[in-house]
């Protein structure tokens, strides 16, 4: 597995080994030992995964920026199994040197990359193709009481979403009404 560091130390892009021949290809989509070794090499704690989620989105669907408060915070290991998405993680760990900064990465069925997002980050993505299937493992169960969202278009975050005048954007009302990072800090404790 190839591990790519990002500008935020705890966020890692993982490229699995893919074996291709005339029949198609094979890869280990997840291997606990290999994942642990990759995190240990970067001096990161190894999580335990408890839930897998799978979503389907059409081109232009934007989901996020979602997170759960402690003690139900979730780390996520995400990948796209069909289609293409621009995936974003925002550091919301108060006191972190990279607080309020974000990393974006393209995930697709072609590049087969995985993105490790530990607890303490808000997460979202936009589908860049129709029928984009997004699969992710989480380190805690979904908790409606702990669920929160940051506004995907918060000007302070200045996330560079790949949106142009031709993009037919679809955002759920809940995500359109989410708090900015400043509002979230004023009304709740983050991490």
Description:
This protein has 191 residues and is mostly beta strands. The chain has one domain (2-187): Jelly Rolls (Sandwich). It has helices spanning 32-41, 173-176, 181-187; strands at residues 2-5, 12-15, 18-21, 24-27, 51-57, 61-68, 76-82, 84-91, 102-108, 114-117, 121-127, 132-138, 147-149, 170-171. The strands form 3 sheets. It has a 6-stranded antiparallel beta sheet, with no helix packed on it. Strands 6, 8, 9, 11, 13 and 14 form a 6-stranded mixed beta sheet that branches. A two-stranded antiparallel sheet has the order 3-4. A hairpin with a 6-residue loop joins β1 and β2 (12-15). The chain starts with a strand and ends with a helix.
Write the layout of secondary structure elements.
Layout: E1 2-5, E2 12-15, E3 18-21, E4 24-27, H1 32-41, E5 51-57, E6 61-68, E7 76-82, E8 84-91, E9 102-108, E10 114-117, E11 121-127, E12 132-138, E13 147-149, E14 170-171, H2 173-176, H3 181-187
Parallel strand pairs: 6-14
Antiparallel strand pairs: 1-2, 2-10, 3-4, 5-12, 6-11, 6-13, 7-10, 7-12, 8-9, 8-11
Provide a brief overview of the structure:
With 191 residues, the chain is mostly beta strands. The chain has three helices and 14 strands. Helices cover 11% and strands 40% of the residues.
